[in-house]
Design brief:
The chain is of the alpha+beta class and 194 residues long. It has helices at 12-19, 25-36, 53-62, 69-76, 86-97, 141-156, 166-187; strands at 2-4, 7-9, 104-105, 109-110, 116-118, 122-124, 129-134, 160-165. The chain has 7 helices and 8 strands. Helix 2 (25-36) crosses helix 5 (86-97).
Length: 194
Amino acid sequence: MTRLDGIPVTSAARTWLDLASILDVEDLVAAGDYFICSQSRSFGSRREAFCSLADLRAQVAAAPGVRGIRTARQAVDLCRVGADSVPESRLRLAMARIGLPEPTLRYVVEEPAGWELAWPDLAYPEFKVAVNYDGRHHLEARQRESDIRRDESLAAAGWHSVTVTAGHVRTWGYDGCAQRVLDALVRAGWRIDA
């Protein structure tokens, strides 16, 4: 328990654990990613996590008989700090399902002089592959212009961009979108048997 404006409430980590009794693993991972996400970038607003990954792990360890504990045990091992949205979490899980290596979250692509070029949602720095989930706000003219500059900057630095949208997900599902990332990685030199 904790207090919010003087009112006793369950902690964020306990609330996440309680969700394990009603959510499947993938939804619980997305919720966990949201709870533990913290961001402080050179753009946008700062975001503080509701709790840490260690808090989630401690909550799972302290409640061995609670409803949904099996789901929570599976999910906590798949939660990652840095996912900004449910689609990003779902895409990351789909990438893992098809055997892709773990991507880096919150990676900053810099030019040789140290200037920040882009902040891909998911990145494979070794192969210079950047993956972005562009949600609805990316359709706004100002954001679209920014995204074009992002992709051009990445290309100029030798990176390949894979952009996934809600339309792609409706057409191919997350697993189909993960195949696009696989194709980009293979073109960049990654080998499936590596």
